[in-house]
């Protein structure tokens, strides 16, 4: 039996190029403030607790990174993303999400 090698997608070879942009866009002064204050903020009768572990799942992280790489490589083209985990990525780059029905 002839089998093909297992291949993992690596993006569009723009990981280093978009890393700083991802950090800038997803850094939050609010989250930094909550972390500095024991993950808690109180305002009047309202208390906000920041979960110890939070963020996107691996699939969404990867989709957002790929979307940024696609925008860097094709700045003037319309970008289409087909994975359900790409919902956040669509908003990040102004692309169009396609759903399979």
In short:
Helix 4 (87-93) links the parallel strand 3 (80-81) and strand 4 (96-97). The chain has one domain (16-97).
Strand share of the residues? Answer: 5-15%
What count of domains describes the coordinates? Answer: 1
Counted beta strands: 4
- Give helix and strand order, one letter per element, not per position: HHEEHEHE
Compute the number of helices. 4
* Overall spatial form: elongated
- What do the pLDDT scores average to? 75
Spatial arrangement of strands, main beta sheet: 1-2
Radius of gyration: 18 Å
Class of secondary structure makeup = alpha+beta
Helix amount, in percent?
A: 40-55%
The poorly predicted ranges are none
Can you describe what's shown?
The structure is a single chain. By secondary structure, the protein is of the alpha+beta class. It has one domain (16-97). It has helices at residues 15-26, 29-36, 58-73, 87-93; strands at 40-43, 46-49, 80-81, 96-97. Strands 1-2 form a two-stranded antiparallel sheet. The radius of gyration is 18 Å and the shape is elongated.
